């Protein structure tokens, strides 16, 4: 136990100079800590300042006071265990703490009383989170917190980093479980746990601070000397008929353009700055499933974050969240368009490395970038890149750009010593500041070039707005080695060479799709997205406040009773509270008549709200399809499953839905029972049928059925075009489909900008081939299969009669392009 006089003497100085941040923020819930069971704290070093900092947090969490001894069976036992004591002032020799002996006492007490359990709670403290340098300066060596510092060094560390103290609670260890699972003697088990604890604290430090920082110039110079780089330089010199020195100079210029200049001090500055900004513009940032990522990092995995891309805010928000969650901010692949003054140098110090939009044909640049990325993995840095390539202008996920994924796989092929895990991340907002500019771009306006002045204006404008809440959900990771083994069992036999393996391209295409489906699996529902979804299904985009509130309750109930994915997060409020919160903003119109309040969207708002609806469209597509099928007539469960399975390949490809087709019948069954629980349908014998049209549930089901409307119309257009008397090639089919979709949009007031997006139509024609709904004719024309004709008939029956007739009539009038 530390001397009481020392703790008393330091109590007030520590309270005045130290400000601690807790990771995770709710350890009792996130780590499964049981406050009813005795708790013993395990520390790396026996430090009075560390103990006092942790003590304040324990009081806030209603955990036992670390200064109070543990009493079991009338015996007084140590409450705190320390691996090391602080080193003496004039020496750096490590001195052992009480960990092993105290642990042996605890285990002996548990053997004597088999009804008791003790939770061993590892606690790590990080002052300033300095990783240190491979070749530290004198000041860096003095302030480094890698060792158990003397009291003088610790005083210097607290004076400099006292306001940047992170306290990390790890998952508690049940000593009773360890005893029951092992027949070892107390001394042996205590010795083994001491070794395990030393490894644990070393890994925690690596997770929190990252590897020691190399000298940037020395690292880049070493990269130029690697064998792949030397060969690429020689090939480039030969191709340009230049000297090796000239080609090497060009390679060095590429490296300088690309490489980050990571600065822990700048990260701490950004942490304070962004914390102030987020508190001004957001009502909160909700984070989900971060403990899974922390555990991967603790287990020695190289983490590659693969988030969706909604806004320029994503770069800063995700890195800020990762830092706050007790992990090192990743190195970020950023478009070279962001490398403008003053943002470029700032981003670079925050860990950004810059990549050109395209470097096809430039083998030297490709090699330089690949070698730099490989060096990041080798040194143990986490990396972040957006596999969509750019920001989504519609709120939907964009088809994956697989270049960075391919380089990640190639890095694993070169060295598989350290496992790589890809972590999908869903980022969502109640307000995206660029939505207005996105809509202008979709109307044909050119994209505004990024500049320092534009960034300044955007920042000032953002500080005046209310962005609601932000959401960062970490999805289910993909262990890359395991993924490769499942897809290409003999991948380890591949020997690194200049040529890439033949299986790489199809593999990364599947991997890209899988990453996007896992991003969607971790979606966050919120009031704005749900309200947009409900209103855009209504006629004239208007509902009474009571009906809208009831529809929100239905959408929440479906998400709870028939969950799309275990990683989807839901708001805690009910429909009324959500609507009250949403209507405080300016996204929806509220008016009153003699019967009450109406909530609506004007045409401009409706177009903007499709962006937020599209964030969660995939979650309600199958419930909506089932609603539409049931409104068309009563059906047995088997028929409903067959109809859904017929359309699911198209929906899955369009929206990156991750539901396994084998599990669809169970999911459909869950939706139907949720419908029944909400009073929308009834089971009559073997038939599921809609409640009477006078029943309120009928109106709810009809509104829900509108979610799938636009997709069904697009499918009907393309499938019906395939029936044209003259066979159509792919390009001609897509051009005609776009023209018909534009006509339909004008006739029926369809406001989604992506409804007639040619890229979406092109993706649909590709899916038709993959699903064997079309086959190629002798002149490469697309010919419908019998399966496609039957599907077209079904889709047309699901559309409103007026819409279906319009599609048939407009198609008949279409001239050949």
3D architecture notes:
- With about 800 residues, this protein is α/β, with parallel strands linked by helices.
- The model has no long low-confidence stretch (mean pLDDT about 90).
Q: What name is given to the CATH topology of the largest domain?
A: Glycerol-3-phosphate (1)-acyltransferase
Rounded mean pLDDT score: 89
- Strand count: 25
Number of domains: 4
Strand content: 5-15%
Q: What is the CATH C-level name of the largest domain?
A: Alpha Beta
DSSP helical segment count: 34
Low-confidence blocks of residues: none
Task: Give a quick account of the main beta sheet: strands, pairing sense, barrel closure.
Answer: 8 strands, mixed
End-to-end distance, in Å? 86 Å
**In the CATH hierarchy, what is the architecture of the largest domain at level 2?**
3-Layer(aba) Sandwich
In oligomeric terms, what are we looking at? single chain
Query: Class by helix and strand content?
Result: alpha/beta
What's the helical proportion of residues? 40-55%
- Determine Rg (CA atoms, Å): 30 Å
